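FORM 7B: Structural annotation worksheet

SECTION A. Query
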Amino acid sequence: MIRHSAAGAALVFAALTGCSGSQPNPNPLADVPLKVAAVDLPRYMGRWYVIANIPYFAERDFVASRAEWTLREDGRIDDHFYGRKGGFDQPESHYQFVDSVVPGSGGGHWRVRLFWPIYVSQLTLYVDPDYRYTLLGYPDKSLGWIFSRTPTMDDATYRSLLMRLSAMGYDTSRFRRVPQLPEQLGKPGFAPSNGSD
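SECTION B. Predicted structure
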């Protein structure tokens, strides 16, 4: 819920609760500050599926999660998060946020308004040249997301994106894949849909 539409919901609760009470990060690069990737905002807009994240209570037990971003005329971004809490047979939930691009960030650092006057930071850490995949993060690395334009991702691509996150100082053992299809439930590496880690 960072901004993510998927990330957005995360940040809402993270800001109010001091994030996810995360465990120590064993990555030797844990203290290296994250670098923001520049993005072409019009090209970056649209639908992104949540392929994986670091589980935390605000997004836990969601399946079929996705973010939808729309660039407004005033330069801000309408940020929508959709997902089904508790299973694919549950009604779709929807959360909406308004994001602002931090000047001088190349479009990759967004301030997400959870509600006035509470804002949190969302960082675009990577987007591939074809804008098929993107990595989002939170400054202290307690939260992170892998997004794709499609609801599925092959294992090789997923591993390569985890390697990128590891090189940025993330503890990638904490990431879990988010079920986008019913047949993914219960598979290794996927988050359970019963609210437990």
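SECTION C. Observations
The two ends are 17 Å apart (CA to CA). The longest strand covers residues 62-71.

SECTION D. Sign-off
Analyst initials: ____
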